[in-house]
Write a structure and sequence with these properties.
The complex is a heterodimer. Chain A is mostly helical. Chain A has helices at 18-25, 30-62, 79-85, 88-119, 126-138, 141-151, 158-165, 177-205, 209-217, 222-250, 254-260, 271-280, 285-313, 317-320, and strands at residues 65-66, 74-75. Chain A has a two-stranded antiparallel sheet. In chain A, α4 (88-119) runs parallel beside α8, α5 (126-138) packs across α8 (177-205) and α10 packs antiparallel against α13. By secondary structure, chain B is mostly helical. Chain B has two domains: 1-42; 77-291, MetI-like fold (Orthogonal Bundle). Chain B has helices spanning 11-47, 51-54, 69-77, 80-111, 117-127, 132-146, 153-156, 163-173, 178-186, 191-202, 204-220, 223-228, 237-247, 254-291. In chain B, α3 packs across α14 (254-291), α9 (178-186) runs antiparallel to α10 (191-202) and α11 packs antiparallel against α14 (254-291). Classes of the chains: A mainly alpha, B mainly alpha.
């Protein structure tokens, strides 16, 4: 299966529009195809309307209401957003989301990059290592976070025991306001690195051998080959990893819920957990939806910035996306 | 492999450098491998300790007392049998449903011509990036309207369709040569028979990718079930595992929790190792596509 051939094949029909087009589609030879087309799409489209399009539109309404579900929703305009401005916990959780995302994503990609480089050598046992690094990725986050909670135990946990062997007095990890967030980040990276590594590895394997040969003939050193061949050629894969990891990190929920429950003292409550608490613990549907809208806007802005920046550093970005 | 060859040194020196590099890389890979495996190993090791072994300091890897009864105890204590049944039912329904709706719609988008097709497809792609967090609250309200709170429908029906999977199917199906289909049509096959007899068998790799992705995601899914599945008898495995840790009294029975975690993780590990090829390909193709 080649990805490149995907687009453009069935563009043999000139574009038309309007009612006459619709009439033609339902008459004569084309009738069967039109009906089959709509029928085949129908189950999917129904799900799309009911469980995606409608909820998205509905969310716009909910965020403008005060709604506890017990009573009818009260339309209050933008008041939820006013509340937000003065909500100190909201700002705290926003900072937490940014802290988590902008520490976990770069460190994760950095480690994934070196692992991918190491895996991109012709050696025995590479598949084995690749599988091992990827196992945490498919493990359910709840189970992984459960195990890590036990590993992070300050008194009898595995990490502090290992640290003690090296003569280090370990911190209280998830029970310490300063260390709780790094604890979640370490666990999340342990779990998530496999994904970035796999994509970067595929990117590395897609670099044509000739480029390296040409560089060698020109007398490029190992470092220069890395700087002028590997890195530039890897930028499309890096871009994809950065964008998806950022989006994913802002939506991270499970590990916070299980590992720290957002504590201690909101030190690890990200926006997602705060949305959940507002909606499903305090039953503030309107405020929850407003917070979710903020999360969406943040993700949207960061994604747009990424696409704008991509022009500057991703090779071949302009040709592909215009 | 590529970057390391063709040094200007003599052949002998070149070989030595490569060997040395290989050795170094193996050491790095192994250390990383141990770090990745350690939590799994720790989980399994602790799942067969007794309560004294688990709270002993310093902790040991090999249990002093092997207590395999942890597994049966953890299993019965939290009604994991019911959880397994729920999880398996939900995963099977969602996987089959998505394969069906996504492949049908993918075929429709890829091959059949009708007014509005490309506009609908564009709408699909543009809404694909809306984060699920945005849907949580409106979808929950909907589930209440439908009377589906604490029923398995709530975790099955909204997920029977998949924009991402539909997109993937469509992209795969447009690469299938049209001649194969035309031959079947000339032989008098209707659209559904063509889809069923010609297109579906050729789409197997993409179907396998979608199936394993959906299985892993559904099996691991936590946030949405946490919101809509309140009653114990409909809880799926991740929910049981999460509530297991919080219900315990004075001394958390970590050995039982580790046993429970072990058997919740095993089905996905098996699914992954069996279908690794398709899973990896799914990630890689979507990655290359997304990258440009």
């Amino acid at each position: 299966m080649t990805a490149g051939a995907a687009s453009g094949i069935n563009r043999d029909e000139p574009k038309r529009g309007g009612l006459s087009d619709l009439r033609r589609a339902f008459s004569g030879l084309r009738r069967g195809e039109t009906i089959a087309g709509y029928l085949f799409l129908a189950p999917n489209f129904l799900g799309f309307i009911v469980f995606m399009l409608f909820p998205i539109l509905f969310a716009f309404y909910i965020m403008l209401t005060d709604w506890s579900l017990a009573k009818e929703p009260q339309f209050i305009g933008l008041k939820n957003f006013e509340t937000m401005v003065n909500d100190r916990i909201f700002w705290k959780t926003l900072v937490n989301s940014f802290y988590y995302t902008f520490v976990a994503v770069p460190t994760g990609i950095f480690i994934a990059f070196w692992l991918a480089l190491a895996l991109n050598r012709k050696m025995r046992g590479i598949i084995f290592f690749r599988t091992v690094y990827f196992l945490p990725q498919i493990t359910l986050t709840v189970a992984a976070a459960t195990v890590w909670r036990w590993i992070y135990q300050p008194e009898i946990g595995l990490i502090n025991h290992i640290l003690e062997i090296f003569g280090v007095d370990g911190p209280k990890w998830i029970h310490d306001t300063k260390w709780a967030m790094p604890s979640v980040i370490i666990m999340s990276n342990w779990q998530g690195i496999g994904f970035a590594m796999l994509i970067l590895l595929a990117g590395l394997q897609g670099i044509p051998e000739e480029y390296y040969e040409a560089a060698s003939i020109d007398g490029a050193s190992g470092w220069q080959r890395m700087r002028f061949v590997t890195l530039p050629m890897l930028t499309p894969a890096l871009f994809f990893v950065v964008v998806t990891s950022l989006i994913g990190a802002f939506q991270a929920f499970d590990q916070f819920f299980v590992l720290t429950q957002g504590g201690p003292a909101h030190a690890t409550t990200p926006l997602t957990l705060y949305i959940f608490q507002n909606a499903f613990s305090f039953f503030k549907m309107g405020y929850g939806a407003a917070l979710a809208a903020v999360l969406f806007v943040i993700i949207l802005i960061i994604t747009i910035i990424q696409w704008q920046l991509a022009r500057r550093w991703v090779i071949g970005f302009d040709e592909d996306n215009e | 492999m590529a970057g390391m060859r063709k040094r200007n040194d003599s052949r002998f020196g070149q070989k030595q450098t490569k060997l040395l590099m290989d050795l170094l890389v193996y050491v790095v890979l192994s250390v990383a491998g141990i770090i990745f495996i350690l939590p799994f190993a720790w989980m399994v090791a602790n799942s067969v300790k007794d309560i004294r072994g688990i709270y002993q300091y310093p902790p040991t890897f090999i249990p002093e007392v092997w207590q395999f009864s942890n597994y049966t105890e953890a299993w019965t204590m939290t009604h994991f049998d019911l959880g397994f049944l729920n999880s398996a039912l939900v995963a099977a329904a969602v996987v089959l449903g998505q394969l069906f709706t996504a492949s049908l719609a993918g075929y429709s988008f890829a091959r059949l011509r009708y007014p509005g097709r490309d506009k609908i497809f564009l709408l699909y792609i543009s809404l694909m990036m809306v984060p699920f967090t945005v849907l949580l609250i409106p979808l929950y309200v909907q589930m209440r309207w439908f009377g589906w709170i604490s029923t398995l429908q709530a975790v099955i029906v909204p997920f029977l369709f998949t924009p991402w999977g539909t997109f993937m199917m469509r992209q795969f199906m447009v690469t299938i040569p049209r001649e194969l289909e035309d031959a079947a049509r000339i032989d008098g096959c209707g659209f559904f028979r063509t889809y069923w007899l010609i297109i579906l068998p050729l789409t197997k790799p993409a179907l396998a990718t979608l199936a394993i992705f959906t299985f892993v995601n559904t099996w691991n899914s936590f946030q949405w079930p946490l919101i809509v599945l309140g009653k114990p008898k409909v809880k799926t495995l991740p929910l049981l595992l999460a509530s297991f840790q919080n219900q315990s009294g004075m001394r958390t029975p970590w050995h039982l929790i580790m046993a429970a975690a072990t058997f919740v993780v095993i089905p996905v590990l098996i699914a992954f190792i069996v279908g690794q090829k398709y899973y990896v390909r799914g990630i890689v193709t979507s990655g290359i596509k997304g990258g440009g």
